[in-house]
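Why do we care about 3D structure at all? Because function follows from shape, and shape follows, mostly, from sequence. That is the central idea of this module. The next example makes it concrete: a single protein chain, its amino acid sequence, and then its structure expressed as tokens.
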Amino acid sequence: MKAKRVISASSSRFSAQLFNFITVAALMISLTALLLGKLLASHKIGFLPFVLSLPPVMIWLAASIFVYASIAHHPNPRTAHYNKWAGYRFYGVMGSMVVIGPSIYGLLGGWQGLMMVLGLAVLIIVPWALLDIVRAAREPWQDMTIEGEL
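And the structure:
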């Protein structure tokens, strides 16, 4: 028996923006934790900024795989398009940081190196993610009816 299901326009739009929303939030939390850790750290606990700033990015890196996969085959092709490019940006920059991050960290050392690596990731990802969020909000979304098996 075939069943019809309606996917609302607002649901499609939110799905298109979701990966970008969480990516911006995770990076900003991480950057804030780094700055707060630097403010609170003394010379005896210099690793505090590193310890505070890394978990939000690592947790989102793991969780993003599930978010990306759940949206990747959305029936609306525009939703899948926005999700695809958000994933390309995030995974591309994070993969690049694995390669060039140690060099930057080695040059500057300490929290300055970490700040430079994280700051570079934020400067690359956040403006494009915010631009995609705005583009998705302005796009004319329409309700979709899909048929599926019960």
